[in-house]
Amino acid sequence: MPHTIDLLEKALAKQKAASWCRQFNITEAAISAAKKRGRLSPTLAGIFAMEMGADPIYWTAVAAAEAEPPGPLRERLEKSLERRKTVL
Prior knowledge:
mainly alpha; single chain
């Protein structure tokens, strides 16, 4: 399953973090925290997906799954998301 950090890396290859921060009216600490955690929040994932031309609903769901603790329910959700994978 793709990870939201992949989405962030694609976005940062397109535009610098400072530029995204100005565009989204967020601090650079938000992107730094996402890099440190290795995942985006559902809100940021959806917004980055919209800007990158990807499905924001799919990426919001991926971010929500990543935020859950590992276990059988998360695995079940990830399998469902894998079947609905979209192109980044």
